[in-house]
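Data card: per-record layout.
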Amino acid sequence: MKKTALVIMAAGIGSRFGGGIKQLAPVGPKGEIIMDYSIHDALEAGFNKVVFIIRKDLEEEFRRVIGERIEKITEVAYAFQELDDLPEGFVKPEGRTKPWGTGQAVLCAAKYLTEPFVVINADDYYGKEAYRKVHEYLVREDAAEDCICMAGFRLGNTLSDNGSVTRGICRIENGHLTGVDETHDIFKTADGAEAHDPDGSVRPLDVMNLVSMNMWGLTPAFVETLRKGFTEFLGGLGEGEIKKEYLLPVLIDQLIQKGEIRVDVLETSDEWFGVTYQEDKATVQAAFRALTDAGVYPEGLYQ
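The structure for this 303-residue chain is written out next.
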């Protein structure tokens, strides 16, 4: 069986809501967290290694809450996203306190990424279909090192009942991603969705539009592209840009515009959900209860 890895970006789990770390909050019937379901679905799809990207100061709690039980069922590696993990010749700017972004997060795990891999957010539930499609894409016989993929979710399946969201709405031609339009303040409506623009105007959005939820199927060769891009990013930082982040989707969009890579979009009809707002937690708990009752998941994932 071809080796493939699930890479979970969890270095941002210090963000808190309601007095707890939201990514480690129990949401399943037996106290499972969202990452439990992501790992379960990925292993079921054929992925056979998990790489957690976390902060070093959260290692002990992270291992206790989820790492130790996952180590019992598959190969696990831990990578640490640190502010001073920079290319030679660069130092952490004075006053920088936030991580460098998702692009640097993946780079921090580079030594573990010797096989094709899928990258996901720690606090997002993606459903089973996306993992199956991405895995099939990564292990196909004619897989090319310069081709990567993205799971595309229908906009209507990614909205919150409790407030606005930001989504990257995809532009697609012949199944290939040609660009992503970052769209802010998207609200769910009675008959669809609408975006509230900065000028005060409101425009309807097609809920069938595909959006990026930061689920990418990548190759070891792309890691080198990511490394080169990070050096260029750091070298181009100007005055007042100390908080700027090196973001995976931004880099991919730049590479697409330059014609340097091809990104295949794999559509999934599954519903995405996550805890964007504190009020979302109850919705997510109800969703996992319903999925369990419907037999999609067993009563207790690892029991």
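Known properties of this structure: The CA atoms of residues 157 and 236 lie 37 Å apart. Residues 15-19 have pLDDT under 50 and may be disordered.

See the next section for split statistics.
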